[in-house]
Design a protein that fits this description.
This is Pirin family protein. Belongs to the pirin family. It holds the Pfam family Pirin. By secondary structure, this protein is an all-beta fold. The protein has 1 helix and 22 strands. It has a single domain, classed as Sandwich (Jelly Rolls), CATH 2.60.120. The longest helix has 4 residues. The chain is globular. The two termini are 27 Å apart.
């Protein structure tokens, strides 16, 4: 088990937009700033009149995971959508997509940069309306390569979330030996083994574990095939050490 604390992340921004960036591989001392298919995870706070102006992506899979607030998304494929904690988006940048985001109300979110299985795929933007903001004490598949995933990733990784109520416990969904896991604590705190994990911390582990909530907690789990094929050259998701 390897733990990356929130204090180890890179912080940037201003009053309207602040982001804490996790480069998981860099924190582990690897030669790749990402961890297998996960390029980087941005934990962002975004408030009016905040605007992230139009900018490009190439060979990135970008999942906008909003837990509170609302923002307006516009992109070069012609979409203009209001995103919130039930209406989420995945941009498969491929050969190229540009987008901008404007805060309507105070937003707290993850901008997750995944790595595609190959470069120069066709660009597309996906949206999904979730029935509930939270999935209490049950893992929910939100994005991935699984056929049941509401938002489709073009790499062998599934992303789950859960709202784990205080004193509840859970293990990983359908654990398989060919997978490794990156677990991100969006809010709250929980115990795994002898370790206490709090907001902004990450855990990387191969074995299945029991997670015990010390407070109501929002967790995001990356189920990654160890042998997944992926590109390290995405514009944002790629290896920063290149």
């Amino acid at each position: 088990m390897r733990i990356i604390r929130a204090s180890e992340k890179h912080t940037h921004g201003n009053r309207s937009f602040q982001v804490n960036i996790l480069y998981p591989g860099a924190n582990l001392g690897n030669v790749d700033t990402g961890y297998l298919t996960v390029g980087r995870i941005d934990h962002a706070s975004f408030r009016p009149p905040g605007l992230v102006p139009m900018h490009p992506h190439q060979d990135d899979e970008i999942f906008s995971y909003i837990r509170s607030g609302e923002m307006v998304h516009m992109d070069s494929t012609g979409h203009q959508e209001h995103l919130d904690s039930c209406y989420m988006m995945l941009m498969n940048a491929g050969t190229g997509i540009s987008h901008e985001e404007r805060a309507v109300s105070d937003v707290e979110m993850l901008q997750i940069f995944m790595r595609p299985s190959q470069n120069s795929l066709p660009p597309q933007v996906q949206f999904s309306e979730f029935e509930n903001i939270y999935s209490e004490d049950v893992w929910r598949l939100v994005a991935g390569y699984d056929a049941k995933a509401p938002l489709k990733l073009r790499v062998q990784t599934n992303i789950y979330d859960i709202h784990l109520l205080k004193k509840s416990s859970v293990t990983f969904p359908d654990h398989k030996i060919q997978n490794t896991y990156l677990l991100y604590c969006f809010s709250g705190s929980f115990k795994v083994g002898d370790h206490t994990i709090t907001k902004g911390d990450s855990v990387i582990v191969d074995e299945n574990h029991t997670l015990e909530a010390l407070s109501d907690s929002d967790l995001v789990l990356f189920e990654i095939r160890k042998d997944a094929v992926y590109s390290e050259t995405g514009m944002f998701s790629g290896n920063r050490f290149h």
